Amino acid sequence: MTLTPDVPAPHAAGRRRGPGTARPTAAGRALSVLDAFGPRHRCLSLSEIARRAGLTLPTAHRLTRELVDWGALERDSAGRYSVGLRLLELSALAPRGLELREAAFPHLEDLHQITRGNVHLAVRDGMQVVYVEAIRARVRNPVTSRVGDRWPMHATGTGLVLLAHSEPDFQEAVLRSPLERFNPMTVTDPAELRRTLAHIRQTGVAVARGQITMPDLVVAVPVLDPAGEVTAAISVVVETEGARPRELAAVLKQASRAITRALSPRR
C-alpha cells in the first residue's frame, strides 16, 4: 500500500492567515514544521517543509536548524530532513502508545501467525486513525503500513470500527468533512457510510474490501478497556481472493478479549 501523492499537510490550509487571523506563535510555527511530515512525506527538503508548513523559507530554515539541534529532526548528506529519534523517545511515553502496544503485542503476534496477514493496532486521534503497532505479512505484496501512519477513518477497517463507536456528533462531523477517495472502491457516500457504521455496531465487526488497496480485504474489531469502553481497534489485512471474513472475525474477537484482559492489571 504505497501511496505518494504530493498533497498539502492535513492542517496546512488551516494555518494560512487571512484578515483578522491571529499571528501564529513561535511554538505554533515550530509545530507546523513537524506537522509537515507524515506517512507519505517522510523525507522533505527545506523548500518542501516551508511550502507544506505555510512558512517563508528563512523562517523554515531557522526552525529546522533549531529542531535539528534539539533532536526532533535529522538532516542527511543530501540536505533533506526526516523526523529525529528524540521524538521517538517522547512518543514512547504516551499512555495510548507504549502501554497499549506492550499489552497487545503478544496477541497481535499470535494473530499474525494464525492469519498470515498484515495486523494493525490503531487508536483514534482527532478525525484520523493512527497505527500504534503494525506487523507485516511476508507475502508477495505486503501492505507497507508502519507504526505512526495516519489514515482517514472512513477508509480503513480500524477507522470504521472506532468511528462506529464514537459519539454521534463526532460521526456526523467526520461524514460532513471531505472524504478522500483512494480508488474507485473507496466508499465516500455519507449515507452508505452511516449504514456501514450501524452494521458494525450491530455485529461488532467491520469488513471492507479494496478501500485503499484494491486487492485487499480488511476485517477489524474493537478493543475494550477494563471499563468496557472502546479504546482501540485491531485488524487483519489479507488478499481478497480466498479470504474468509467470518473466520478472521472470530480470531480477531478472541485476540481483542485477550488484549482487554492484559490491560486490566495495568489500569
Query: Overall pLDDT, averaged?
Result: 85
Q: Give the fraction of residues assigned to helices.
A: 40-55%
Number of helical runs? 10
Measured between the Cα atoms of the first and last residue, the distance is: 35 Å
SSE string: HHHHEEHHEEEHHHEEEH
Tell me the quaternary state: single chain
Percentage of residues in strands: 15-25%
Q: What is the gist of this entry?
A:
By secondary structure, this protein is α+β, with helices and mostly antiparallel strands. It has helices at residues 12-15, 26-35, 46-53, 57-70, 85-91, 95-115, 157-164, 168-176, 190-203, 245-263; strands spanning 73-75, 81-83, 118-125, 128-135, 150-152, 206-209, 216-224, 230-239. α6 (95-115) packs antiparallel against α10.
